[in-house]
Amino acid sequence: MNQRSRRLLLVATLSTLLPATACGSGPAASSGPAAAAGEVAKVTWAIDSGPRSLDPAHAYDGKSALVYQQIYDSLLYLDAAGRLVPGLATSWSRPDPLTYVYRIRTDARFWDGRPVTAQDAAFSLHRHTDKGVASEFATYFGAVRSVTATAADTVTVKLSRPDPYFRYVPALAGQVMQQAYATAHPENLGTPQGRTMGSGPYRVESFSPATGAVLVRNPSWWGARPAVARLEFKVVSDPETLRLAVQSGSVDGTFLSDPSQSRRWRDGDRLKVQWVPSPQTVYLSFDVTSAPFDDVHVRRAVSLSVDRGGLTAALFGGKARVSRSITPPESWGELASADQVRSVYDGLPDPRHDPAEAKAELARSSHPRGFQVTVPYPASMKWLGDVLQSLQQNLKPLGITLTPQQVPFQEYLAKLYGHRQLGMQIIPYTPEYPDPAGIPALVLGDEQAKSGFNTSGFTTPEIERLLSRQRTADRDERVEGVKRLMSILAEQQPYAPLFYTDIGLALNRRLVFDGAYTIWCNFSQQWAPLIKPAAR
């Protein structure tokens, strides 16, 4: 399918950063006491569902990325502030608007001892453009014309058109695998049987989508030697079982993506818990191509029925913020100043809970007496079901019968990527990079409606023009274009923004996360080398 299960489902996991320094830079505080030099024989890390594959092309979701980011090296990474930093590429340049050049480090080796070459890097990037591979990252490579190894240590990417977002792609889909190994395993690459060949800080000992994975330290990794010798990922799907496991010490740590559990997760004798704000956004998606959600009044009625403020306090314990747009303020990066960003959001309508106006909007629609709708949510994210149950009660007076449907994680993703009869969906999503046009570019437009993540099917000629101009416009025009896109979404409501949710880190006190913990440390980076023994 395509791209988003990640950070779509970053809300369902998180990711990580550059080997020893990426997460460490930036303003966020460390998660605990100072780190000590020394070894940690084993760390058991809990995840709520197993990785789908070790092949990034077929596992673009946060749960899988948590594992495979530790076994591959990526060309680039994002630091704690969302800035691009070196990885396998020691430097990079953009000699013209259609060309990117990456210099590859010469001291990296795959687990079998063979050197990592520019040809391996070019092959790994090119796979995402190959329709035969059917990469879930394919959308990010839509503007790519060619990827070639132009020297022993150089990869050159040529674009067919300007793409302001491509500069971040090597930090998202830049994982490098060995070409010889991949071509020798065309049918089972990334599976428990076929596995893979990377050059990252850890190599694979075992892997199962059902139970997790076991990684062991790669002694020949080019980066600083990780303190943790053995990293075991254990699937613990029940939130309370997970909490008790971490609290008791049978599990050493986990990333927390469920803010509804924040009241239960408290510091203890063995446990340190940290929550930080993030740009994770949760929204409702309405398929505007079919009834009843082809009617804007229906979409507005549903949106007005959501008690965002009440849910933020009662369900999330304050670990969430009411959102005015599916584009979070933290995603603006360097495009606009803080004052400009505040002005943009101040100009958007307040997403209020107004039952009377919701009833009036439905009365204006072609479905004034209501309708029935079933909305799926992943079993591993029960809190999304809690949001739907609250909305279920608020919609009853309107004659709208909403049925929340718990489904397996994979079924949930398959439905979204299937682009058929989507109706109404609840979607958690986290931007992969700090650009405010990133989300609109992936959830709007005709191209994304066919094979991408436009789950609403919404587009207009103006939207197509605005999205196209984002590729070539200067900074001021880009800011105005994003403002207009956000205004259209607020008016037409193909997506109803709900919350920006905090993320958390729970860690045994014998360990420390040696760096700044932010959202960018959780999806497209190597975080395991930052786990170290705590100083006594």
UniProtKB/TrEMBL annotation:
<dbReference type="InterPro" id="IPR030678">
    <property type="entry name" value="Peptide/Ni-bd"/>
</dbReference>
<dbReference type="Pfam" id="PF00496">
    <property type="entry name" value="SBP_bac_5"/>
</dbReference>
<keyword id="KW-0732">Signal</keyword>
<dbReference type="InterPro" id="IPR006311">
    <property type="entry name" value="TAT_signal"/>
</dbReference>
<dbReference type="InterPro" id="IPR039424">
    <property type="entry name" value="SBP_5"/>
</dbReference>
<dbReference type="GO" id="GO:0030313">
    <property type="term" value="C:cell envelope"/>
</dbReference>
<dbReference type="GO" id="GO:0043190">
    <property type="term" value="C:ATP-binding cassette (ABC) transporter complex"/>
</dbReference>
<feature type="domain" description="Solute-binding protein family 5">
    <location>
        <begin position="84"/>
        <end position="447"/>
    </location>
</feature>
<dbReference type="GO" id="GO:0015833">
    <property type="term" value="P:peptide transport"/>
</dbReference>
<comment type="similarity">
    <text>Belongs to the bacterial solute-binding protein 5 family.</text>
</comment>
<dbReference type="GO" id="GO:1904680">
    <property type="term" value="F:peptide transmembrane transporter activity"/>
</dbReference>
<feature type="signal peptide">
    <location>
        <begin position="1"/>
        <end position="22"/>
    </location>
</feature>
<dbReference type="InterPro" id="IPR000914">
    <property type="entry name" value="SBP_5_dom"/>
</dbReference>
<protein>
    <submittedName>
        <fullName>Peptide/nickel transport system substrate-binding protein</fullName>
    </submittedName>
</protein>
<dbReference type="GO" id="GO:0042597">
    <property type="term" value="C:periplasmic space"/>
</dbReference>
<keyword id="KW-0813">Transport</keyword>
